[in-house]
Write a structure and sequence with these properties.
This protein is mostly helical. The chain has two domains: 68 residues; 37 residues. It has four helices and no strands. It is flat and about 60 Å long.
């Protein structure tokens, strides 16, 4: 019986198969988002919540299938840089909105 390694079993990162899976999932999530917006009979709050879930799923699909970020130890620094960037963007956007609303309340 032959000895197989994990590299022979799992598809390589950046293989055509992973890109096709990522493309199909991203396309399906995009179609779900467009259909949620186009349906007039759905409750706005339900549509907004479903749209946010689809957007988060789309981000995870892009990070995993196209940027090849996962929980492996080799990707730890890339994930840390991504998390740090998200924190900085959150601080910048949150701080900007906080300053705008504070100024708006002081001007009234």
């Amino acid at each position: 019986m032959e000895h197989t390694t994990n590299q022979e079993i799992a598809p390589a990162k950046g293989s055509t198969k992973t890109y096709i899976i990522g493309f199909v999932l991203a396309t399906l999530l995009t179609l779900v988002s467009f259909s949620l917006v186009m349906i007039k009979d759905i409750n706005r709050h339900v549509a907004f919540a479903a749209l946010m879930v689809a957007a988060l799923a789309q981000m995870v699909v892009h990070l995993h299938y196209f940027l090849h970020l996962d929980r492996s130890s080799s990707q730890r620094w890339n994930v840390l840089v991504l998390a740090f960037t998200a924190v900085i963007v959150f601080i910048l956007i949150g701080g900007t909105l906080w300053v705008m609303f504070t100024l708006n309340s002081r001007m009234m």
